[in-house]
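Posting for a labmate who doesn't have an account.
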Amino acid sequence: MTVVGPFGLRVRDQALEADVQAGLAAVEAGLLDATKSDVPFITEAAQHLVSAGGKRFRPLLVMLASQFGDPGAPGIVPAAVVVELTHLATLYHDDVMDEADVRRGVDSANTRWGNSVAVLTGDFLFARASHILADLGPEAVRVQAEAFERLVTGQILETAGPREGCDPVDHYMDVLGGKTGSLVAVSGRFGAMMAGADESVVDILTQYGERLGIAFQLADDVLDIASDSHESGKTPGTDLREGIPTLPVLHLRARAAAEGRPEDLALVELLDGDLGDDDRLARALGGLRAHPALEQARRDTVRYAQEARATLAPLPECYAKAALEELCDAVVHRAG
């Protein structure tokens, strides 16, 4: 098996490997081209995260999904560029909202240039994605618009918090379905759709992407607590510091409310305090790393990855299907 792409996917077939590698290389060139501007400063800011690398998880899914139709169809690479540009744009905006200092192992755009430039650069990337999308036809525009609406709705739901009487974990999973699952689902959908695959196949790969995207984000939740910045490429505890209720924290709070153990209540109190203090943040991270809530979140990650794998069952056995199954394992591996 050969490892393909920064995500570490193992591919069992040389022809598939060649197709995926060529597709990802074309996407990389497309990203650089799409982020160029006549204004050098805009080019520098827009290419900041492109140059920092990344797993290219969404373009990889586009390439694999295209194998169920014509992987050489002309719309596949532009569609992959669209989803990655959209993802990159959300990272610029997320870092402003989270006041993050590091992204992909480099200074975040808001740290380097300030919030205004970071927000406007994200808007620039959305505009460039829309320009490319316009050439892919009205159906592609509609699919992307619906996904973007879900993405923004998920972000707003996260900011607003759960309604009275709503279970916080259920609310959080709704947030993830919109905020992360929607764009990963579009990656599977675009790959199959642009390749001319049957509608049933397009639907399967869309559902697969939705579940895999949620598993991917849950793995990020675990990494925010369990890893250091060298492993994750961003500052550990960023979500904790900003009070973002990720799944390990929600599981901790549920246990504390149900069981009332003093050590759980003390950890919740620590999380509710000022985590802007580095020492308090370090103690909070240490407490969560040793708590069963973190392992519970890992099990949830595995469950969603298994659900993603199960959706692939109706597809014919082939190397592309095996690679998609392997991708589920890779997501789980990230969570430890």
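Reply:
Got it, the structure tokens are right above this. The CA atoms of residues 12 and 328 lie 15 Å apart.
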